Structures are given as C-alpha cells and as structure tokens.
Amino acid sequence: MSDAGDIWSGAPAWIMVLWALQETREWAQRLSTPALRPFARIVCETVSQNRHLISRWFAENGAQELGRKLARQEEIAERRRQEVCLREAARAERTRGEEPLAPPLLQGW
Fold first, then answer.
1. What is the Cα–Cα distance from 71 to 17, expressed in whole angstroms?
2. How far apart are CA 97 and CA 100, in angstroms?
3. CB within 8 A of 29, min separation 6: which ones?
4. Which long-range contacts (CB under 8 A, 24 or more apart) does 99-103 make?
5. CA pair distance 35, 64, nearest whole angstrom
6. What are the pLDDT tens digits along the chain (109 aa)?
7. Torsion from C-alpha of 61, 64, 69, 74, nearest 10 degrees
8. Residue from 8, 6, 3 nearest 44 by CA
9. Residue 45 half-sphere exposure toward CB, CA atoms < 13 A
10. Which of 3, 7, 37, 109 is buried deepest, with most CB atoms within 10 A?
C-alpha cells in the first residue's frame, strides 16, 4: 500500500517491491513490460532465496570468475528444465495412456 492508499497485488505488487529500493529500480522498470511482467514474482523469489549465495559471489569473485559461476548456474537451470519436461511427458503418458510427445527441449535429438 502506498502513502496515497494505492494497493497492488500480483505481479504489480512484486514490481513495486523492487521499485521501493533505489538499487533495483532498473529491474522494476524492465519487469514492468508486458513480456516480463508475469516473471516479476519468480525474479523476486529467486533472488530472495539465493541472496546469501549471490552476495558472496559478488563479494568474493572478480568479473571472470563470477561469469563462470553464473554460466554454470544457467547450465544447471537448463538441465532442470529438461528434467521437468521429461517428468511432464511421463505424467501425461500415464494419465492419458497415449504415447508421450517429445518434450520441446529434446525434439530433434
């Protein structure tokens, strides 16, 4: 709730959380676009859940090492996305009794 009595919920509320801090206003502006607005909550939760690790990475590493660590995290996230696709395909097969479709990330393999 703002000083003027405005109330936000959903994605706009998460964007306002970021806007409240000078350091994250650029994030708020970027996440307020229609394409990114649905991800505002995910961004806030991800940063919050990993804030100690992220702070340590920035404090203890130079740019090159930090880049390597972030790239590894992206690789891990991609593997997790693929695992989710495989689980979803297996679940769909069990529930429908049909042949599972290849998950989009694995088509053409």
1. 27
2. 9
3. none
4. none
5. 30
6. 777 888 888 888 888 888 888 888 888 888 888 888 888 888 888 888 888 888 887 788 788 887 887 788 778 878 888 888 888 888 877 777 555 555 554 444 4
7. 140
8. 8
9. 7
10. 37
